[in-house]
Amino acid sequence: QQWHKERVENENTTGDVHDIKWVTSESISKVQSVLKSLMRDWSIEGAGERSMCYAPIRNAVRKYVPIGVESDKVLNRLPRIVVPGAGLGRLALELCSDGYEVQGNEFSLHMLLVSDFILNNSSTYRPFNVSPWIGTSCNISSSNDPTRTISVPDVDPGAMLLGEESNFKDQNPPEFSMAAGDFVSIYSKTSEHGQWDAVASCFFLDTAPSVVKYLQVIWDMLIEGGVLINFGPLLFHWSSPPARPDEVANSSLDHRYFDSVDVCYDDLKEILTQIGFEILEEKLGVEALYTADKLSMMSSNYQCVYFVARKPCRKDF
Predict the structure, then answer these.
(1) pTM for this prediction
(2) What is each CA distance from 161 to 10, 17, 66, 115, 171, in whole angstroms?
(3) If DSSP states are collapsed to H, E and C, what string results for 167-228?
(4) Residue 49: which of 106, 132, 115, 158 has the closest Cα?
């Protein structure tokens, strides 16, 4: 009945473009991001990007959060890891396939819907094609480039944990979950304090309206001896456009654009140490791509920072 009502209303319109319910530019942008993320996380074409960004994190997790150490036996559990800004879930699932209990966290409804489909309803036996760059209109060599397709997924998500080639043929796989919602709102709760052995952050810290708040929440949620493993640039998503004070007061922009503070990496390290973290390892200028179109006339190469920061145990003081 609702569909019929809307159809009648549409048929009775004047035909003016103002009468049409257009999708918002924001939703179009988010759909384009999802399509590109499918390439990055779940296609053969994205393997190079994943190797640049995910491999260092997985190696660091194995190094600093080893499985089967004495603390695991005392706690009678596997190490627990949060992957904030998990997107379509590939990094989180790969860490789980390595033997860790993992919870991915994602805020975007668009990402959550597609990650749920990929993780729970897709396989290499039923692949499907997408055009990641269908919304591209600039820096194109050939008219066929934006419409070309790729096949996803390149691996069977279920088989990674339950298949014959998984690491858990003779036992139950580790717990894997996705938490939907704002990172600070979820993990700042007292019930989350001291519950996690590691936070694996990839292209995430610079999404914060307040990076200080993110780091404080991460400090609280980690156990003593827990680590923050980070890889990514500092392309602060809430960086505000230049504006005079009177323009800020009258602006329709989200207030977080004007509340955000863009910090350099030296300042970020100072914030980490002031909170209490100790830097165990760091590398600057690590080259990485993010949903790059290899056929495009333009490419953005990020010079990322990789670091591992530890929350000391009380006995260390």
Answers:
(1) 0.89
(2) 48, 50, 19, 16, 10
(3) CCCCCCCCCEEEEECCHHHHHCCHHHCCCEEEEEEECCHHHCCCHHHHHHHHHHHEEEEEEE
(4) 132
Distance CA 193, CA 1 (A): 49
pLDDT tens-digit series, residues 219-255: 999 999 999 999 999 999 767 666 656 665 566 666 6
Closest to 114 in 3D by CA, of 125, 130, 100: 130
Cβ contact 258:240 at 8 Å? yes
* Three-class DSSP category at 232: strand
DSSP 8-state code for residue 246: H
With CA atoms as reference, report the closest residue to 199 among 68, 105, 63.
Answer: 105
> Cβ atoms within 10 A of the Cβ of 52, count?
17
CB hemisphere CA count around 253 (13 angstroms): 16
Cα distance between residue 142 and residue 145, in whole Å: 5
- Entry field: residues in the chain: 317
Q: How far apart are CA 218 and CA 226, in angstroms?
A: 10
Element (H, E) at 118: helix 109-121
CA distance linking residue 47 with residue 112, whole number of Å: 22
Structure tokens at 75: 């706690």
Contacts of 90 (CB under 8 A, 6+ apart): 40, 41, 42, 50, 54
DSSP 9-22: HHHTS---GGGS-P
pLDDT, mean over the chain: 89
Percent of the chain with pLDDT over 70: 85
Contact 91, 49 (CB under 8 A): no
Selection from 198, 267, 203 nearest residue 232 by Cα: 203
CB atoms < 10 A from the CB of 235, how many? 13
Distance CA 240, CA 299 (A): 24
Residue at 48: amino acid letter:
G
